[in-house]
Amino acid sequence: MPETHTLGEFRAKFRVDELLVAKTNAWSWSVRPDQPTLGAGILSLNRFALRLSEVTPAEMAELGELIATLERAVKQAFPSYDIMNYLMLMMKDHYVHYHVVPRYPSPCTFMGLTWMDNGGRPGLPALGERQHKDREDVLQGIQKALRDALEVDVR
């Protein structure tokens, strides 16, 4: 994937609007187009900011609330996940965002497909993995499962 330098390039590259799961005033949570593990996502600021220090206290508070919602929804949709990794790398995409990667202790199944956690837990997640790539139906299925889980939102 090419580097991004503007908010528009970033949102297009990660298909934020198309794969959106939830949105607040400050943040968007979307399904990650490349799935290193089942349910991987992107948490991105809805305005351009190059540095984490540019995020306001109000935006950070909103992020905390969205993370709590996200974790409940992922657990509802994909119950075998047991820990979440949040990676803010910004090496190619110069914009405040997190890669959200659910981690699994063993293979799991979704939409009749086997999903692995190839990061060698407790190692780093294998962000370069593209499980079941080129399967738009799978991305849409993940998005639907997460949106449906938001409606349940068991606290």
Find the CATH topology: HIT family, subunit A
Strand and helix order: HEEEHEEEEH
- Name the CATH class: Alpha Beta
CA(first)-CA(last) distance: 37 Å
Number of H/I helices? 3
Specify Rg, calculated over alpha carbons.
15 Å
The CATH superfamily appears as: HIT-like
Q: Mean pLDDT, nearest integer?
A: 93
Main sheet: strand order: 1-2-3-5-4
Report the major sheet. Answer: 5 strands, antiparallel
What form results from the Cα inertia axes?
Answer: globular
CATH architecture: 2-Layer Sandwich
Q: Compute the number of structural domains.
A: 1
Alpha-beta content class: alpha+beta
Q: What is the number of E strands?
A: 7
Strand content: 15-25%
Binned, the helix content reads 25-40%
